[in-house]
Structures are given as structure tokens and as C-alpha cells.
Amino acid sequence: MRKIKINLKKAAKKIKLLMLDVDGVLTDGSIILDNEGNEIKAFHVRDGHGIKMLIKAGVQLAIITGRHSKVVERRAHELGITEVYQRCHIKTVAYEHLLEKIGVSDEETAYVGDDIVDIPLFKRVGLSVAVADASEYAKKEAMLITKNRGGRGAVREVCELILKASGKWEEITDEYYHG
Q1: In the chain, what are the domain boundaries?
Q2: Please, what sign has the CA dihedral across residues 140, 144, 145, 150?
Q3: How far apart are CA 139 and CA 53, in angstroms?
Q4: Mean pLDDT, the chain, as a whole number?
Q5: Is domain 2-178 given the CATH code 3.40.50.1000 in the classification?
């Protein structure tokens, strides 16, 4: 167990790009449609704050999701995530584009997912993370399984892991403690 934690910390320290799935990761996986055809999603505020802290620390963020939703575009904009890839049924295509565009290697990337469609990225990235309520298939392939469920603080856990491993946690959170 200790060896795994050391390897996770070592992997997390190298991360320059964190990629996130949406449904089941940034949300609890529910897709709510109203009578007018509008899609409603609930995002956890602490996940969002973790993302903002990570961006402030210089880590790039991206969203790669199989569905398309204006709600995702809005939330990404609010958080400062400029790399948003929707309708990605083969997520490795977006992944390859991101690596080239941002100029990072596999080991400098992390991905948080929750289902079988995320496994190809789990096999490529330097840090693969499945949320606590992910499918068993995804959990089996991930390096780390979060304590929190998707849409309920799982992304914040990953953000904190990366910030702490890189030694930037204190720098980023200092303003909260010292005004």
C-alpha cells in the first residue's frame, strides 16, 4: 500500500494537464431534461474551486466528453477551461490533439473518468483516476479511485492531490489563511 501511494504522488507531481469527463465525473451522471428540451446538470462547487486553484497553479485543464451540452460550455467558461471537446465518442482523438497542442507527454497528463469508454485514456495517461461510483470496469483499470463520488467532490480530491504532490498547495491556499 505504501508503495502505491509513493507512486501516485510521483505520478501526480508530473501532471501538467488534467482532463475530465463530464457526466459521472463533474456531475453525478444524471441527465435532466425539461419539457422545453433544456438539459440541466448539477456541478459541485468544491470541484469547481479545485479546478480554479489548479489553473492558478499553472496546470492546464480540458474536458473530453461523449455528449454535447450548452451547460458544459457554460460551466467550462465559468471555470476558465478553454479546451472543451464534446461529442467525442473516441476520446483518444481529442487526447492526441491536446498532447500536440499543449506540448505535453503521456506521463504529464491525468484523466478522470467513470466508465468503460474512459479505459483507452486510462491506459495512456500518467495518472488515471476513476471516481468512487465508477463502473467496475473503469475502477479495475484506474491507478486511483477517489473517495468521493462523481459530482460530489471527486474532482476536488484529484486537484488537491496534484497541488500537494507538486508542492503548490501551500502557495495556492496561503491567501485563504492569511487574507
Answers
A1: 2-178
A2: negative
A3: 26
A4: 94
A5: yes
